[in-house]
Amino acid sequence: MRSILITGPGGSGRTTVAAATALRAARDGARTLVLSADRTDGLGAALGVPTGDRPVEAAPGLTAWRPDAAEGFRTDLAGLQERAATVLDLLGASRLDAEELTPLPGAAELNLLRALRDSVLSGAYDLLVVDLPPAPQALDLLALPEELRRYLRRLLPPERQAARALRPMLGRLAGVPMPAEWLYETAARWETELAAVQAVLERPATTVRLVAEPGPGGADQVRTATTGLALRGLRPDALVANRVLPSATGDTWLAGPVAQQRKTLEDWRDTYGGGPAALLPVHEVAHLGRDPRGGDDLTALDVPGAGPAPAPPEWPVTDRLADEGVLVWHLPLPGAIREELDLVRRGDELVVTAGGFRRIVPLPSALRRCTVRGAALREGALRIRFAPDPELWPRGR
């Protein structure tokens, strides 16, 4: 099953492009589902069919769905209260009724990830199109499963569960309650769910599609988004330049915006390239002169089709031990700026910061027996040099 996650700067028309992409696929014969976490029904406005917390048929072969974050939040918290009943009673805490629960920030995004996972695993569709939040929030959302799993492993290491038979005795000896069984069971359940979501996001058939209006603001956000996606190990399959104005216009007032758009489009093609073998193919979608509404307007938008997913980016290790005495780890970071990069080695992990994004990545096994000797940013790739540690490196290598 192919999955396309669509994001871009706020106000760039990403919801409209998501709707048009899904409609095109459905009319090409693919069983298609389009998802959105938007509280307002922008997806329904674009499709011309109201959408909500139950999937609806928006067109032949096309299903639209906006999962209800409130209902999912109430269900999860009510279940947590039941599992923690003993602890809550011990603390004398009052339980919350479902009617008084309001979703916390982030609940809608978590619910969207769950719906994405369930939709892929169901096998009911050929294509899943997801209308993600604006780019900065979308990048945080895509990082969430991996980061939460890391937090869970640090707070409740799985190996501690091996001693759970001893916890009642330890509790009596210490005189204080020990972590209850429900806590470890809840952590294990979350680990399973988060792992499933992360697996869906990391599937070769899952790609991200960027939508932006060509212009200085859009160019800055596209550069930032491509760097953030690369740091997460994700590669966009296309850059959709949306609302492109016609080059030939007799309106002198439009001459300035048209020239600005053309300059940005040229820069994008120079930076990312064009064509099927490009780092990031640039696809123009013309401005209709109005806000697209309904199937006819969406069909008039020349959005790119689903197509095959590009190969995910690789982080290869190059062996230069014979010539230079080092191993080099290549991390593709298109759009990264040298002054915004930072690296910290922490045990068997590397903390990489690029602009406003950070990721903690485990080192490949060979590099764990090495020390960092330097790094350089060249041609959109971060090259980190590692020298073998004589005390850890195998003799005779």
How is this structure best summarized?
The protein is of the alpha/beta class.
Chart the SSEs and their pairings.
Layout: E1 2-7, H1 14-27, E2 32-36, H2 42-47, E3 56-59, E4 62-65, H3 69-83, H4 85-91, H5 107-122, E5 127-131, H6 135-155, H7 167-174, H8 181-201, E6 206-212, H9 216-231, E7 236-244, H10 252-272, E8 282-286, H11 294-300, E9 317-320, H12 321-324, E10 326-332, E11 341-346, E12 349-354, E13 357-362, E14 370-378, E15 381-388
Parallel strand pairs: 1-5, 1-6, 2-4, 2-5, 6-7, 7-8
Antiparallel strand pairs: 3-4, 9-10, 10-15, 11-12, 12-13, 14-15
Helix pairs in contact: 3-5, 5-8, 6-8
Describe the structure.
The protein is α/β, with parallel strands linked by helices. It is built from twelve helices and 15 strands. The longest helix is centred in the middle third of the chain and has 21 residues, at 135-155. Residues 169-178 have low confidence and may be disordered.
Approximate helicity band = 25-40%
The computed structural class is alpha/beta
- The arrangement of helices and strands along the chain is EHEHEEHHHEHHHEHEHEHEHEEEEEE
Specify Rg, calculated over alpha carbons.
25 Å
Read across the widest sheet, the strand sequence of neighbours is 3-4-2-5-1-6-7-8
Cα shape: globular
Query: In DSSP terms, counting alpha (H) and pi (I) runs of 4 or more, how many helices?
Result: 12
Q: How much β-strand is present in the residues?
A: 15-25%
Low-confidence stretches: 169-178
Taken together, the total number of domains comes to 2
The third-level CATH topology of the largest domain is Rossmann fold
CATH architecture of the largest domain: 3-Layer(aba) Sandwich
Largest sheet: 8 strands, mixed
Q: How would you state the average pLDDT, rounded?
A: 84
The CATH C-level name of the largest domain is Alpha Beta
Q: Report the end-to-end length measured between terminal Cα atoms.
A: 44 Å
CATH superfamily of the largest domain: P-loop containing nucleotide triphosphate hydrolases
Q: What is the number of E strands?
A: 15
